[in-house]
Amino acid sequence: RKEVEQDPGPFNVPEGATVAFNCTYSNSASQSFFWYRQDCRKEPKLLMSVYSSGNEDGRFTAQLNRASQYISLLIRDSKLSDSATYLCDPMIYNQGGKLIFGQGTELSVKP
Amino acid sequence: NAGVMQNPRHLVRRRGQEARLRCSPMKGHSHVYWYRQLPEEGLKFMVYLQKENIIDESGMPKERFSAEFPKEGPSILRIQQVVRGDSAAYFCASSAGGDTQYFGPGTRLTVL
């Protein structure tokens, strides 16, 4: 089983739609969770950090289910500028904090 | 406060040459991470360094690759005798020792 698995995508949605991505992780020792976005294979940019059960920031909501070992990202009222690849990341502190990225889920928001 | 800086942004090398990639962490950050993204693949961890120490190099290829983070100056990722399969984007990230990592713009290496 891969350490991190994400919805393969691509997701093609119209502007204004609500879209959700899922990410499962295999290592139950994971302590912090991050969602990054990557545009056109440029550098990843931090979108959200998740430490407890979830986090919300404007149109973006991340939820964590430790028992089932998955995290999700919900985007409401999608904008054209949300088009990107979304990377899920669990981190384990005693491994030095290295990020183990999933393959990413590609989102394309259409007018 | 400048972000993570990497140079060069683009590097072209012929097979057999050496590639040196540099990374200057954000001001106040003493932890540096290198990641590689091969074409059509996800980002993979390579190495984690603190000043003058390699903490975790579990993602580094066994041969030809080395990294350092000297007391003064940037972190260097060195690839000796490059091959076409080394062509990739190499990203550096830094942190202050907490969990949040900030990425540099990357170096795109092309091996001819």
Report on this model:
The complex is a heterodimer of chains A (111) and B (112). Chain A is globular and about 40 Å long. In chain A, 0% of the residues lie in helices and 51% in strands. Chain A is built from no helices and 10 strands. Chain B has strands at residues 5-7, 10-13, 19-24, 31-37, 43-50, 53-56, 65-68, 75-79, 88-95, 102-103, 107-111. By secondary structure, chain B is mostly beta strands. Chain B contains no helices and 11 strands. The N and C termini of chain B lie far apart (37 Å). The A-B interface holds A 32, 34, 41-46, 49, 87, 91, 93, 95-104 and B 31, 33, 35, 37, 41-45, 48, 55-56, 59, 89, 91, 93, 95, 99-106.
What percentage of the residues of chain B does DSSP assign to strands (E)? Answer: over 45%
Give the class of chain B from helix and strand content and strand pairing: mainly beta
Element pattern of chain A in H and E: EEEEEEEEEE
Distance between the termini of chain A: 37 Å
**What overall form of chain B do the CA principal axes indicate?**
globular
Based on CA inertia axes, which overall geometry of chain A fits?
globular
Rg of chain B (C-alpha, Å):
13 Å
Q: Give the uncertain stretches of chain B in residue-range form.
A: none
- Work out the number of β strands of chain B: 11
- Beta strand count of chain A: 10
Strand order of the largest sheet of chain A: 1-3-8-7-6
Largest two-chain interface = A-B, 22 and 25 residues
Helix content range of the residues of chain B, please? under 10%
Sheet bearing the most strands of chain A, described?
Answer: 5 strands, antiparallel
Mean pLDDT of chain B: 93
What would a concise description of this structure say?
The complex is a heterodimer of chains A (111) and B (112). Chain A is an all-beta fold. Chain A is 0% helix and 51% strand.
Give the secondary structure arrangement, pairings included.
The complex is a heterodimer of chains A (111) and B (112).
Chain A: E1 4-6, E2 11-14, E3 19-25, E4 32-38, E5 45-50, E6 54-57, E7 60-65, E8 70-75, E9 84-91, E10 105-110
Parallel strand pairs in A: 2-10
Antiparallel strand pairs in A: 1-3, 3-8, 4-5, 4-9, 6-7, 7-8, 9-10
Chain B: E1 5-7, E2 10-13, E3 19-24, E4 31-37, E5 43-50, E6 53-56, E7 65-68, E8 75-79, E9 88-95, E10 102-103, E11 107-111
Parallel strand pairs in B: 2-11
Antiparallel strand pairs in B: 1-3, 3-8, 4-5, 4-9, 5-6, 7-8, 9-10, 9-11
